[in-house]
């Protein structure tokens, strides 16, 4: 299991930016692919982005491609999600996870979610 502390969620206006951080403790993530998923109210959890253990490969959902950027700093045991040009439909609880595959994007362990609310 991984305990991942999420930082950076909150309320932002449409068109704004937020940066989410997922700092893992209790597990070293440098050998794991890591990713972000989200769950909007009344909807199922959906894929957002994944990054390979080395950081060389990334994947994005079509809905966030060109607006979101995933990155990682293995020296800090942390994964980031930079979110720009936010839209109301980006409102969701965002979850970081890891230990799974890039294609298809699947996570083996999860952290607790952080709420991102985008207002108009």
Structure description:
The protein is an all-beta fold. Strands 2, 4, 5, 6, 9, 10 and 11 form a seven-stranded mixed sheet that branches. Strand 7 and strand 8 form a beta hairpin. The model has no long low-confidence stretch (mean pLDDT 91).
Give a quick precis of the structure.
By secondary structure, the chain is an all-beta fold. 0% of the residues lie in helices and 49% in strands. The strands form 2 sheets. Strands 2, 4, 5, 6, 9, 10 and 11 form a 7-stranded mixed beta sheet that branches.
Primary descriptors:
mainly beta; 7-stranded mixed β-sheet; 4-stranded antiparallel β-sheet; 11 strands
H/E order of the elements?
EEEEEEEEEEE
* Beta-strand segment tally: 11
- The mean pLDDT is 91
Helix-residue proportion: under 10%
Return Rg in Å.
Answer: 13 Å
Distance between the termini: 37 Å
Set out the fold topology.
Elements: E1 3-7, E2 10-13, E3 18-25, E4 34-39, E5 46-51, E6 58-60, E7 68-73, E8 78-83, E9 92-98, E10 109-110, E11 114-119
Parallel strand pairs: 2-11
Antiparallel strand pairs: 1-3, 3-8, 4-5, 4-9, 5-6, 7-8, 9-10, 9-11
């Amino acid at each position: 299991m991984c305990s991942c502390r999420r930082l950076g969620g909150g309320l932002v206006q449409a068109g704004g930016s937020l940066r989410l951080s997922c700092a893992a403790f209790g597990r070293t993530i440098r050998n794991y692919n890591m990713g972000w998923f989200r769950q909007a109210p009344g909807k199922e959890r959906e894929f957002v982005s994944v990054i390979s253990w080395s950081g060389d490969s990334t994947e994005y959902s079509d809905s966030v491609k060109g607006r979101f950027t995933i990155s990682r700093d293995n020296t800090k045991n942390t994964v980031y999600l930079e979110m720009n040009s936010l839209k109301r439909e980006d409102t969701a609880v965002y979850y970081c996870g890891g230990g799974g595959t890039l294609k298809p994007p699947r996570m083996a362990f999860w952290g607790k979610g952080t709420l991102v609310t985008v207002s108009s």
